[in-house]
Amino acid sequence: SGNYYNQGEIRKKELEQSCCVLGIPASDVTVIDHRDLPDDPAVEWDPQLLATLVLKHIEAKNINLVVTFDARGVSGHANHISLYTAVRYNVCKPLWVPPWCQVLVLESVNLCRKYISFLDVLISCLLPRDALFILTEEETEQAKRAMRCHRSQLLWFRQLYLLFSRYLVVNSLRLL
């Protein structure tokens, strides 16, 4: 629930506002508040527990595409890495992920590429990947508006992220 600094309720509202900016209705937003899955950048979550919760959500919502972090979690955040581990656990188990559901993994890039914004488009086009998403200027501005909804998390380095991150312009993914 995003309760690392005891801001769970604030962060839930920020998530709903952010999703609204992206055109995602509140009825499609699920917040998991589980005592064994604390919002803590130093805690690795139990992959089996998380895998079970993710699979239940996929089946309940009839989801056909999952986009998750890779093994480096984009920022090295232990919770992000745990999510990747759980989804990989689901995909590797026979018949765990329904056949109608594909899983794409967001590529973590080095620090230099992470903060060169649109200049990474050329590099990303030249490197192997299964999918490449290049946002239009309008989509980039929409993503920035959505990020700004997370006021409680907009520390100075995230302000830099909004200005320079390639993830607001280009995202390379691979099939899991």
Automatic annotation (TrEMBL):
As given in the record, the signal peptide range reads: none
Q: Which GO terms describe its biological process?
A: GPI anchor biosynthetic process
Domain of life of the organism encoding this protein: Eukaryota
- GO cellular component terms, A-Z: endoplasmic reticulum; membrane
In short, the EC number is: 3.5.1.89
Q: Which Pfam families does the protein's record reference?
A: PIG-L
Family named by the database record:
Belongs to the PIGL family.
Q: What is this protein called?
A: N-acetylglucosaminylphosphatidylinositol deacetylase
The organism encoding this protein is Catharus fuscescens
